[in-house]
Design a protein that fits this description.
- The complex is a heterodimer of chains A (175) and B (141).
- Chain A is an alpha+beta fold and 175 residues long.
- Chain A has one domain: Alpha-D-Glucose-1,6-Bisphosphate, Chain A, domain 4, CATH 3.30.530.50.
- Chain A contains 5 helices and 7 strands, in the order ααβαββαβββαβ.
- In chain A, strand 2 and strand 3 form a beta hairpin.
- Chain A starts with a helix and ends with a strand.
- In chain B, strand 4 and strand 5 form a beta hairpin.
- The longest helix of chain B is centred in the first third of the chain and has 18 residues.
- With 141 residues, chain B is of the alpha+beta class.
- The radius of gyration of chain B is 20 Å and the shape is elongated.
- In chain B, helix 3 crosses helix 4.
- Chain B has one domain: 2-Layer Sandwich (Alpha-D-Glucose-1,6-Bisphosphate, Chain A, domain 4), CATH 3.30.530.50.
- The chains are: A alpha+beta (175), B alpha+beta (141).
- At the A-B interface, helix 1, helix 2, strand 4, strand 5 and strand 6 of A face helix 1, helix 3, strand 2, strand 3 and strand 4 of B.
C-alpha cells in the first residue's frame, strides 16, 4: 500500500520532467577537438579574389547535387542542401531478420536531408580561406527523426577540396 | 483507504497536466523570464565599430562550435545557424551599433523545441566569440 502512495507522488514528477528539455552543458563550449575539425574543414587558397572562390564553391555544391538555399556574398556565405535516400542494406537485412523471427516491423532509415554551409574569409597575406561544415538529419520509415549529426569524416572533406582545387586551378593548402 | 487511493489516481493526471501547458497557442508570445533578464543574459558589448568583421567572426565561431550556417545578412546584421548532435540547436546572432564606439551582440538559442534561458550556454558562446574577436565581451545592463 505504501508503495502505491510513493508511486502516486513520484509519478507526476516524472511527467513534469518530460515536459522540459534542457540543453547539454557542452553544447556551446569549444571542444578540444574543435581545432582538429577546423583543419579538416578549412583550406587556404593563393588568391585575394574571395568572390571567385565563393562562385567556384557554389559550382562544386551544384556538381554534388546540392540546391543553394541561401547566400550572402558580402559575408562569404553560401548554404546548400539536398534531400536523398537513406536506406542502408544492413538495416534492411536486420529488419527482415526481426520480422522473420516474429518481431513485427521495425522502422528503418528512409530519407535524409544533408545541409552544407560554405564560408570564405580573408587569410594571411595574399590568401583566402574556405571552410565548409556539413550535417544531416535522417528520418525513418515511421516518419520519426532517427539521426541528427555533424559530418566529421575526413575523406568527405578531402574529396570536396580536391574537387574545388581542380575547379579554381589553385592548390588547396592545409591551414 | 480505497477511496483515498481512487482519489489519488484520479488526481494524478491533473498533476501531470499541470506540468505542461494549457493552450499551446500561448507559446506565440510566451517568455518564462522577464524580457530585461533574458536580454541581459543574451547580450554583450564589444569595443569595435567593424560590423562586417564582427559578423564574419561570429560565423567562424559558429563553425568552430559545430554549426552549419542557415542564413546571414550583412545589412540586417544577423547570422543564424543550426547544430545537430543527437539534438537540434538553433542560434540567431544579431549585431547592432551601441553608441559611437561599440557594437552590441545578441544571441538567442532554441534547443529542440525549447528556448534556452539558462545563462551558462550564452556565457560559453560569448567566451568562444571573445577569443576569436581578440576583444573583451562586456556585460550590458
Amino acid at each position: 500500500m505504501k508503495k502505491i502512495k510513493v508511486l502516486l507522488f513520484i509519478l507526476p514528477m516524472f511527467c513534469v520532467v518530460a515536459c522540459v528539455q534542457t540543453i547539454p552543458k557542452e553544447a556551446l563550449q569549444l571542444r578540444p577537438e574543435s581545432l582538429e575539425l577546423r583543419k579538416l574543414q578549412t583550406r587556404s587558397f593563393e588568391t585575394k579574389d574571395e568572390k571567385q572562390l565563393l562562385v567556384a564553391g557554389a559550382g562544386i555544391l551544384q556538381d554534388l547535387g546540392y540546391n543553394i538555399d541561401e547566400s550572402e556574398t558580402k559575408l562569404g556565405v553560401i548554404v546548400g542542401s539536398k534531400d536523398r535516400d537513406a536506406v542502408e542494406a544492413a538495416q534492411v537485412a536486420g529488419a527482415i531478420m526481426i520480422a522473420a523471427l516474429g518481431g513485427g516491423s521495425v522502422p528503418i532509415d528512409k530519407n535524409q536531408k544533408i545541409r552544407a554551409s560554405l564560408i570564405t574569409f580573408p587569410g594571411k597575406g595574399k590568401t583566402t580561406n574556405l571552410r565548409i561544415t556539413i550535417q544531416r538529419i535522417v528520418w525513418n520509415t515511421a516518419g520519426q527523426i532517427s539521426k541528427t549529426q555533424s559530418i566529421e569524416d575526413p575523406e568527405i572533406y578531402q574529396d570536396f577540396f580536391t574537387k574545388l582545387s581542380k575547379a579554381v586551378f589553385l592548390d588547396a593548402n592545409e591551414i | 483507504m480505497k477511496k483515498l487511493l481512487l482519489a489519488g489516481l484520479l488526481l494524478t493526471p491533473s498533476f501531470i497536466v499541470g506540468g505542461c501547458q494549457t493552450t499551446s497557442m500561448n507559446q506565440v508570445m510566451e517568455t518564462s523570464q522577464s524580457q530585461v533578464a533574458i536580454r541581459s543574459i543574451q547580450t554583450r558589448a564589444f569595443d569595435t565599430k567593424d560590423k562586417t568583421k564582427t559578423l564574419r567572426t561570429i560565423i567562424a565561431t559558429l563553425q568552430d562550435l559545430g554549426f552549419v550556417i542557415d542564413k546571414a545578412d550583412e545589412d540586417l546584421g544577423t547570422v543564424s545557424g543550426t547544430k545537430l548532435d543527437g539534438y537540434q540547436l538553433r542560434l540567431t546572432v544579431t549585431v547592432r551599433p551601441r553608441g559611437e564606439k561599440q557594437l552590441l551582440v545578441r544571441a538567442n538559442a532554441t534547443y529542440n523545441v525549447t528556448a534556452v534561458e539558462d545563462p551558462e550556454p550564452y556565457n560559453q558562446f560569448f567566451a568562444a566569440l571573445e577569443k576569436a574577436m581578440f576583444l573583451t565581451a562586456h556585460q550590458v545592463d
